[in-house]
What we know:
Belongs to the G-protein coupled receptor 1 family. By secondary structure, the protein is mainly α. It has helices spanning 12-19, 21-52, 58-85, 93-126, 139-156, 158-162, 189-225, 228-266, 271-281, 284-295, 297-306, 314-325, 336-346, and strands at residues 166-169, 174-177. It has one domain: Rhodopsin 7-helix transmembrane proteins (Rhopdopsin 7-helix transmembrane proteins, Up-down Bundle). Strand 1 and strand 2 (174-177) form a beta hairpin. Helix 8 (228-266) packs antiparallel against helix 10. It is globular.
Amino acid sequence: MTGNSSSFKLDNTTRALFLNVNTSIVISVIYMIVTAVNLTGNGLSMWLLIFRTSPKTPSIIFMINLTLTDLALGAALPFQIAYQLQGYHWKLGPKMCSVLTLVFYTNMYCSILTMMAIGIDRYLGIVRPMRFRQTRFRKSIAVLSCLLMWGVVLSVLYPLMTTDLTFEIQELGITTCFDVLKKDMLPSISAWAAFLFSMVFVLFLFPFCVTTFCYISVIRKLARDSKTVQKKRAIRLAIIVVLVFTVCFAPNNILLLTHTVLRLFYKESIYMAYKLSLCFSCLNSCLDPFIYYFASKDFRHKLRQIINLKSLNSMDSMKMERKESFYSSHYPVESPEGEHSKMRSTT
């Protein structure tokens, strides 16, 4: 954070980042790989979720919402790649900078809240199937929940939409985009504190705790009552979700809070570490299709049909349906015979 550009003096850590060509290339290459995997995996996922998966259960609606945010990130990443390769020189103006920054952080926090919603849905469907039978997420509530997520995230990130996030660094002859922030972006230290608290604690830490509780409860329930296949699949799903939180989201939010406090009160910087963590936060968009695979039985079947994986014969498929039907969180559950005949007709 700084004042106006005429009186600004770049700190050594941030200057080193801007002048380090190798770091810029590495980050750009990671973004290129993420873009390719993101658009391919989530494009296929969106097609399967919208056109090949039925009925549209609450979990499927949440997955569609998550895929939408991932595709938006995939569409925005090429602009970030160009910015990096041009030496952190932004040429597209303040409005486009605000849009790009908003897409980055909206993807992160909408993903976090959506994964929390999927975890809650599975918790209610598996751990509390009778007690909450009448209060489960239904389609309309799921849609409203997605809209509420967007509303909460956009409300917290409102300063990013109303502030010029570009900054001219005269000593390097570049104009940055969200790499150097004006201290008067927010009116006071208390406003900065509220902004950071909302991002780190409300949009990250609280959903992380809720999601962890839900998946631990699901695993404990299945460990007591379920067959081996269902239990292993639930454990894999929980591992992937926790991996996304710990690798993609936790470092960025922790470093964001640490870097901001250091800049506001001690004039220190850990910006290079934060920049790298922001890069790795984008990897969540590549891991989300794996969440769909383990979370949705219908998604698994349709994906296997598309890529011609004949891993289950007819009898195994029918047995698997019988094992999973009691604990499935996707309702209403179709009979094994009905699902099997539908798969034969669409193959």
